[in-house]
Structure prediction request, 367 residues.
Amino acid sequence: MFLLACGCSFHHGAAINGDDDAALAPDAIGTDCYGHAPFTACIAAPPTAQVTLSQDLDTGAADDTLCTELPGGRHVAIGGVTACAIAATDITLPSGTVHVIGTLPLALLASGSITIGGTLDVSSAAGRVGAGADDGSCPMLGVTGATFGCCAGGGAGGSFGTQGGNGGTAESLSLGGAASAATGSPDLLRGGCSGAAGGSGSGGTGGGIGHSGGAVYLVARGQITLGGEINASGAGGAKAGKADGGGGGGGSGGLIVLDAPQLAGSGTLVANGGGGGGGADNGHDGSDGAAPDPDNIGDAADGGSAGGGAAGSGGSGAAAQLGAAFGFSGGAGGGGGGGGGGGGLGVIRLRGGATIGSVTSSPGPVD
Prediction:
């Protein structure tokens, strides 16, 4: 089964997923196209088998057999972006959690239906980086301003669908990292943006970055049924170490795209931001920022606590269900390091005529 980039020649014809204006029909050489612009993928022949997702997947692993095999590799171009694609008649994740990591986004292409009864997880967390996270097009956030005297500022939170929080200052001299502007709804299948690292202070350790949420695309010619959860949230920023380091910024949420004529079920879509890491003082480390809780998507991910009263705590991550559209800034350090900023929201897009229905979403979907 060949998966081809959509740079082939096409003519307009029968609608795909019921959208006459955006759809492209198979052309004379028999290509069979899935999804709507700008997220479109084509296969040379319709799939003939069902797929059940039951094991974790690494989209960049050379020996992973779930992605469709191609001459010279396993990956396909979807709207100009290389992705790991799984094509089938029907795709089901009946229960449990499937973690998807790796360098590439994940795309599920179904000629029939897709049913998610468990959790499809492309989020980042401590020790795990979601599929296609930390997109290369993200602005360089850098680290905090230079350390003056004892203490370092915190790193900024990652920005994507909304802006992350600024890193906390330290003693009004060591400025925290400034969050970049939000990019808004992307036209590329890509993950979010990481937070920035904190400054190192007077011989301490700056908090490391929080990785962003990854990217996942589900397209079905029939129905997508979501009884479980799809999670593309960012990770918390890492704690700062003594003496007087600044906390790391939390990662932004990633990208979820659903393309189908109908979205059924009462499950959850979440792409919230991670909390910033706590700053350190002279004798105490901060604590790590939290990752969002996918079972409580209305709760913002907490920033890490400050290491001692002289340091700044991390800022909370963004959570749209809470009404917190932006990452919170890290707390200022007095005689210690500043806290990292919280990550901004990711993006959730619905295509092909589907509406949100009874599904809960943070952030709210755009078309």
About this structure: Residues 1-30, 69-73 have pLDDT under 50 and may be disordered. Residues 113 and 223 are 5 Å apart (CA to CA). The radius of gyration is 21 Å. The first strand starts at residue 3 and ends at 4.
